[in-house]
């Protein structure tokens, strides 16, 4: 029964990921590929598949014992994605279909390596300010498309071309800072009041259970 469940989960996530790739094949327009649910849902399925694999002993063992060459290659891929993603994927309709899938694999590997690998070159958890961003992670996730798009529009209006690697890096940093600021404001103004309600509600539920 466990084997059937394991196979079903893997097949389900695989179907979603492949379905997203097929959707992008038939819908090459940038707006469809970047914003349509059926195009983007494959990213979430990739993350879900990675999280599921981490619950399996054999896969967790592999993640814990990732070799340094694999880890180094992962971060080389991250740097390459930041600097050359547009040149590699966006100029070719066929490669663009696999853009989101490959990028999601790369960042999934970073998350897995940081959480499980024993041979890590460096653990970002040692950087306390970076770890504190976990508090506003929901806002970072929700608002980053909006803030990054606004920053990109501003750079375009200022005639600053993303083709210049230096300008592209500055734009990324500006997008990151803008996202953090918006996520902080959201946490203070919107999320925190709801979190207080959650704590209050949890206390009531706990009291009912005790009764």
Nutshell version of this structure?
With 211 residues, this protein is mainly alpha-helical. The chain has two domains: 1-121; 127-211, no CATH class. It is built from ten helices and no strands.
Structure commentary:
Helix 5 packs antiparallel against helix 7 and helix 9 runs antiparallel to helix 10. It is globular, with a radius of gyration of 20 Å. The chain starts with a helix and ends with a helix. The protein contains 10 helices and no strands. The chain is an all-alpha fold and about 210 residues long. It folds into 2 domains: about 120 residues; about 80 residues, no CATH class. Helix content is about 80%, strand content about 0%.
Question: Which features does this protein show?
Answer:
about 210 residues; mainly alpha; 2 domains; 10 helices; disordered C terminus
């Amino acid at each position: 029964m466990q084997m059937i469940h394991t196979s079903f989960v893997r097949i389900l996530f695989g179907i979603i990921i492949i379905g997203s790739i097929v959707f992008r094949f038939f819908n090459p327009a940038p707006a469809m590929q970047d914003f349509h649910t059926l195009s983007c849902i494959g990213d979430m399925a990739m993350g879900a598949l990675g999280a599921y694999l981490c619950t399996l002993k054999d896969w967790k063992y592999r993640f814990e014992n990732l070799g340094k060459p694999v880890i180094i290659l992962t971060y080389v891929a991250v740097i390459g994605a930041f600097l050359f993603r547009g040149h590699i994927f966006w100029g070719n309709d066929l490669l663009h279909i696999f853009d989101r899938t490959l990028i999601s694999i790369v960042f999934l590997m970073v998350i897995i390596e940081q959480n499980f690998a024993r041979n890590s070159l460096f653990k970002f958890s040692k950087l306390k300010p970076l770890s504190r961003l976990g508090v506003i992670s929901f806002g970072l996730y929700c608002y980053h498309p909006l803030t990054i798009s606004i920053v990109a529009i501003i750079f375009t209006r200022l005639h600053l071309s993303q083709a210049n690697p230096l300008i592209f890096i500055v734009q990324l940093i500006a997008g990151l800072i803008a996202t953090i600021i918006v996520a902080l404001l959201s946490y203070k103004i919107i999320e925190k009041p709801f979190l207080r309600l959650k704590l209050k509600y949890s206390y009531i539920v706990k009291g009912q259970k005790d009764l």
